[in-house]
UniProtKB/TrEMBL annotation:
Cross-referenced InterPro entries: LD_TPept_cat_dom, Tlde1_dom
Highest taxon in the source lineage: Bacteria
Cleavable signal peptide: none
Designated name of the protein: DUF2778 domain-containing protein
UniProt domain Tlde1: residue ranges: 27-102
A GO term, aspect molecular function: transferase activity
Length: 129
């Protein structure tokens, strides 16, 4: 995650269809609260990592223990959608966020290690299907 190193993580985005499959077609990118995050360029800021604690408990099934806001880069078409996050959770699927499922803890460890001493940095994120 530093320099030219790229992290690639298995993930799902959007809600599964009636057969339990994920549809990443461009038509589905436009479907708010159902479709996946649209393909494009985004950025994250590690200092915005939100940890699920007892005093601000969100649904662990939906969110997991961590979430990180995804910001849109200029030129990325989101079809009026927003409010995207990277998060974990016990159920695969989301309302358009990137759900790393059980891989979120590993992602958090790796991004914290890679940005140690630079938590205010901006990390580019490319979504492609």
């Amino acid at each position: 995650m530093t320099g030219n190193t790229t992290g690639v993580y298995p993930a799902v985005s959007g809600r599964p269809d009636n057969r339990g499959s994920f549809d990443y077609s461009s038509a589905r990118h436009q479907m708010e609260n159902v479709g996946p995050i649209p393909s494009g360029r985004y950025w994250i800021q590690p200092s915005q990592m939100w940890k699920n604690r007892w005093y601000n408990l969100a649904s662990r099934a939906a969110w997991g223990d961590y979430r990180l806001t995804i910001h849109v880069m200029p030129g990325t078409r989101t079809f009026g959608r927003g409010g995207f996050f990277i998060h974990g959770g016990t159920h695969a699927g989301s309302a358009g966020c990137i759900n790393l499922h059980s891989g979120m803890e590993n992602f958090v460890r790796e991004i914290e290690a890679a940005t140690k001493g630079m938590p205010e940095c901006y990390v580019p994120l490319t979504v492609q299907y």
